[in-house]
Amino acid sequence: MTGNTYWNTYRCEKKKLTLSVDKTLVEKAKEMGINISAFLEEKLAEVVEIERVSRRRDSNPRPGDYKSPALTS
User: Fold this and answer.
1) Which pLDDT tens digit goes with each residue over 12-49?
2) How many CB atoms lie within 10 A of CB 16?
3) How confident is the model at residue 57 (pLDDT cuts 50, 70, 90)?
4) Integer Cα distance of 50 and 46 in angstroms
5) Of 6, 3, 2, 1, nearest to 47 (Cα)?
6) Which of 32, 45, 53, 73 fits 7 for a cystine, CB–CB 3.0-4.6 Å?
7) Chain-centre distance for alpha carbon 53
8) CA-based angle 24:21:44, to the nearest 5?
9) Per the domain annotation, does 37 fall within a domain?
10) Residues 25, 1, 12, CA angle at the centre, nearest 5°?
11) 33 lies in some domain
12) Residues whose CB is less than 8 angstroms from the CB of residue 21 and which lie 6 or more positions away in sequence, other chains included
C-alpha cells in the first residue's frame, strides 16, 4: 500500500461498508490470509487514481491531440 499516491495522501477516517461477495471466494481469501478490507482499499485507491488521471487527461488534451473539425469532415 505504500506505492499508491492516493493512499498515502488521503489516508484518513474509515467508513464502514457492507458488501456482498461470493461466500466461497471470501473463505478462500481468508484461508490464504488475505485481509479483504486492506486488499479492497488498496485496489480501490489504485482504480480511483487511474480514473482521476484519465479524466484529467481527457479534460486537458495535448496540443497534438486536437483534431480540427475542418480536417475530420
Assistant:
1) 788 898 999 999 999 999 999 999 999 999 999 999 99
2) 4
3) confident
4) 6
5) 6
6) 45
7) 10
8) 125
9) yes
10) 100
11) yes
12) 36
Longest dimension (CA), the chain: 61
The x, y and z cell numbers of residue 73, run together, are: 469532415
3-class secondary structure, 66: coil
- Residue matched to cell numbers 484529467: 56
What 3-state class would DSSP assign to 8?
helix
Cell readout for 72 is 475530420
Question: DSSP string spanning 12-56?
Answer: -----------HHHHHHHHHTT--HHHHHHHHHHHHHHHHHHHHH
Give the domain range for residue 36: 19-43
